[in-house]
């Protein structure tokens, strides 16, 4: 059997400890499938003595993470520290510049610095892999980069954040409101103490930017993602959607539009019951890639957790052990295109709009007039009979197919109206 | 850019013509992603002059398929002829012995001769790839072989035949019976004129045997698959299942049991509504792999058709162009284990049993006594009030969790009973 692939582990949090367990537990199987053993040689983390439930005494220790890259007994640095910059980025740069392959689960770092790191990897002739950065244990980057490699990807979309999906599907099943379910999710460990990155859509946007770069051969452009979160979705919205035959999911979606511009958006959407994403409950992730020959491909599984994430990291290690070290973003970094961000106004579709209005005469007429003046045609309108607390009433509507620009124009007409108790909630219907 | 990967195409049916179209349409994209162009150099089929909707005049022609393997201007032979033996197998053997890589969509050939062909490929240092042989355009072989490579696979199961899934889901949606829906499926092109291989489960069994070999590192053993079809499922069974919270799907399933033996079965099963396979409608395929770290991974998409199948063939070609040529069954052929076939009697689970009985007193008592004497505990029993044509009555029951051997014993006690108008229909509940 060939010489072992020797890895250094930067970061020993839950995923790092999971990877140690995985390699201990499945090492023989991995060696057989990879054609050579995958061995941990050295580790680094903030605190050497912390109890992680795994024995690290057999591995060399480095206080300074970047020193891992300098070790002559290391082939691959595995970065599991997290954070877009700081020690993670320093470790990544050192590794690639030092001629080591880099495997990372760090979505924020790849979303912000993926192009630079890919260029570094290619310049130094080493692999850069980040399967675990998107959708946990699901091999969706492999599916796009290799499984669908012969297809022009027409659209990619999916449920990319397990926390949001847990919250939305639990709200749906229990009829409870966002705040209450978020609190429970935090107690159960499905949401962080500070859930901002998850519930505001930033985490999903990191993953979407990575998928879009791969799918469309684009220079990664996280800043251009139109990001929305789920914090304003109410139990009443979920009930309205259900009555219309839809479920609400936080959807990341990207395509190249008619003008050749790159559209990237994360937003709660109404997903029809017959779409497989509607059936995705709990902290699960699912990604759909539509190829011009493959048709619709769906990849689904656990979006987070130490086991699934470690599984994805180890899949990258097996690929590297087997000698599969193609371009990080499928095509060479120099061939990645700099797309202009799409103007969503050109897009057509159906939109769900929900207003919280004062319970008094004339409000509905005001909204209807704004829709008319914006050129928005209303397909169905539901005014909730019973006022909410504080005498507010919810008015929800679904538009006919039409340009998003018209919806924006109608909403601009309503801006500042004394009839609206809060800004309207706008969600698209997944077509 | 590196030299082109030159391919020879054996077989120009719908998939072959689809591959020609794909390479014409997406050639530049493929070259960019693969790092080199993929070019068709030579073709062979039964009839040179047949109109296939694609122009093959630019390719060299061989009357004898096996001659493709002898051409010095060819790197890869793509076998799209079909059939487990005959010209397909001859072409495959010639190609590998001649030092050409082989890509095939031929599930029957791999199910019957996969081990021999893998040994040939390894002995000659060339690639053998067969992504298109399982689940059409879905990269499930890649998902298992690479994406889940670091996992011990605990169970693999899925919907592996689009024809059967179309028929069962249409029966479910329309309440019509098998024969009528099969006829319609044939008219719509979802079923062959001779549907035997599909509806009797043989096609799904070919795919299951391939998946099991990959998942468990097993010497492929098609003969050991316990194969059942959907021809005896009635609309009434689907209605009963629905009432119990289940949908009927033809499921291929494999695992290594407690005794270390390989269990492989294709059988219509009752799938609970909360399992993602229950939502899979129409001619779609879906495969679930349960890894010991990844958890449950689901791969879903079009299970057949020229576009999806060509997409999978081309994905294999891109891998070969990139230089990824590991062992065909993930581990080297010499390391594949010869598992003994499992004795299903040891397995425990819940079973759906449906009897067609004469409408007269004492029949139910006879069945109940046989269940008691077999040691089968009945969870629910439904006797349909209104007799079917011919005075027959359907009796359906679901057992409590228990050994399959007990169900077999109970049914053996009823064998030859004058009360039964036909053999009982036995379906397992997917746990």
From TrEMBL, chains A, B:
<comment type="pathway">
    <text>Amino-acid biosynthesis; L-threonine biosynthesis; L-threonine from L-aspartate: step 3/5.</text>
</comment>
<keyword id="KW-0486">Methionine biosynthesis</keyword>
<comment type="pathway">
    <text>Amino-acid biosynthesis; L-methionine biosynthesis via de novo pathway; L-homoserine from L-aspartate: step 3/3.</text>
</comment>
<dbReference type="Pfam" id="PF00742">
    <property type="entry name" value="Homoserine_dh"/>
</dbReference>
<dbReference type="InterPro" id="IPR002912">
    <property type="entry name" value="ACT_dom"/>
</dbReference>
<dbReference type="GO" id="GO:0009088">
    <property type="term" value="P:threonine biosynthetic process"/>
</dbReference>
<dbReference type="InterPro" id="IPR001342">
    <property type="entry name" value="HDH_cat"/>
</dbReference>
<dbReference type="GO" id="GO:0050661">
    <property type="term" value="F:NADP binding"/>
</dbReference>
<keyword id="KW-0560">Oxidoreductase</keyword>
<keyword id="KW-0521">NADP</keyword>
<dbReference type="Pfam" id="PF03447">
    <property type="entry name" value="NAD_binding_3"/>
</dbReference>
<feature type="active site" description="Proton donor">
    <location>
        <position position="207"/>
    </location>
</feature>
<dbReference type="InterPro" id="IPR005106">
    <property type="entry name" value="Asp/hSer_DH_NAD-bd"/>
</dbReference>
<dbReference type="Pfam" id="PF01842">
    <property type="entry name" value="ACT"/>
</dbReference>
<feature type="binding site">
    <location>
        <position position="192"/>
    </location>
    <ligand>
        <name>L-homoserine</name>
    </ligand>
</feature>
<feature type="domain" description="ACT">
    <location>
        <begin position="352"/>
        <end position="428"/>
    </location>
</feature>
<keyword id="KW-0028">Amino-acid biosynthesis</keyword>
<feature type="binding site">
    <location>
        <position position="107"/>
    </location>
    <ligand>
        <name>NADPH</name>
    </ligand>
</feature>
<keyword id="KW-0791">Threonine biosynthesis</keyword>
<dbReference type="InterPro" id="IPR036291">
    <property type="entry name" value="NAD(P)-bd_dom_sf"/>
</dbReference>
<dbReference type="InterPro" id="IPR045865">
    <property type="entry name" value="ACT-like_dom_sf"/>
</dbReference>
<protein>
    <recommendedName>
        <fullName>Homoserine dehydrogenase</fullName>
        <ecNumber>1.1.1.3</ecNumber>
    </recommendedName>
</protein>
<dbReference type="InterPro" id="IPR016204">
    <property type="entry name" value="HDH"/>
</dbReference>
<dbReference type="InterPro" id="IPR019811">
    <property type="entry name" value="HDH_CS"/>
</dbReference>
<feature type="binding site">
    <location>
        <begin position="10"/>
        <end position="17"/>
    </location>
    <ligand>
        <name>NADP(+)</name>
    </ligand>
</feature>
<dbReference type="GO" id="GO:0009086">
    <property type="term" value="P:methionine biosynthetic process"/>
</dbReference>
<dbReference type="GO" id="GO:0004412">
    <property type="term" value="F:homoserine dehydrogenase activity"/>
</dbReference>
<comment type="similarity">
    <text>Belongs to the homoserine dehydrogenase family.</text>
</comment>
């Amino acid at each position: 059997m060939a010489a072992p692939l020797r890895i250094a582990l930067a970061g020993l949090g839950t995923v790092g400890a999971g990877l140690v367990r995985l390699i201990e537990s499945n090492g023989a199987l991995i060696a057989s499938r990879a054609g050579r053993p995958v061995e941990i040689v050295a580790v680094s983390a903030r605190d050497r003595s912390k109890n992680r439930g795994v024995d690290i005494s057999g591995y060399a220790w480095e206080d300074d993470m970047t020193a891992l890259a300098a070790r002559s007994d290391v082939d691959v640095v595995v970065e599991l520290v997290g954070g877009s910059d700081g020690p993670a980025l320093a470790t990544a740069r050192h590794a690639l510049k030092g001629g080591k392959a880099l495997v990372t689960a760090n979505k924020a770092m790849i979303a912000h610095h993926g192009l630079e790191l890919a260029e570094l990897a290619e310049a130094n002739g080493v692999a850069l892999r980040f399967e675990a950065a998107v959708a946990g244990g699901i091999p969706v980057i492999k599916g796009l980069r290799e499984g669908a490699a012969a297809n022009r990807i027409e659209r990619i979309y999916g449920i990319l954040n397990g926390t949001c999906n847990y919250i939305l599907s639990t709200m749906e099943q229990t009829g409870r409101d966002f705040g209450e379910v978020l609190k429970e999710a935090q107690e159960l460990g499905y949401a962080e103490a500070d859930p901002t990155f998850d519930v505001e859509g930033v985490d999903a946007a990191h993953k979407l930017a990575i998928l879009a770069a791969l799918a469309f051969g684009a220079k990664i452009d996280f800043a251009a993602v139109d990001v929305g979160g789920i914090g304003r979705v109410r139990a009443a919205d979920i009930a309205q959607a259900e009555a219309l035959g839809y479920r609400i999911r936080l959807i990341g979606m990207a395509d190249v539009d008619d003008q050749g511009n790159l559209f990237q958006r994360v937003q709660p959407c109404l997903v029809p019951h017959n779409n497989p994403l509607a059936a995705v409950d709990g902290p699960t992730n699912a990604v759909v890639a539509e190829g011009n020959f493959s048709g619709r491909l769906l990849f689904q599984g656990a979006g987070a957790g130490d086991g699934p994430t470690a599984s994805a990291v180890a899949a990258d290690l097996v690929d590297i052990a087997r000698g599969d070290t193609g371009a990080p973003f499928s095509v060479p970094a120099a061939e990645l295109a700099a797309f202009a961000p799409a103007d969503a106004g050109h897009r057509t579709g159906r939109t769900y709009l929900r207003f919280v209005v004062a319970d008094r005469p004339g409000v509905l007429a005001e909204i209807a007039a704004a829709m008319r003046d914006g050129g928005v045609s209303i397909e169905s309108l539901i005014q909730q009979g019973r006022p909410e607390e504080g005498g507010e009433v919810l008015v929800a509507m679904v538009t006919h197919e039409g340009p998003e620009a018209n919806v924006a124009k109608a909403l601009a007409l309503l801006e500042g109206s004394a009839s609206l108790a809060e800004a309207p909630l706008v969600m698209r219907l997944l077509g």
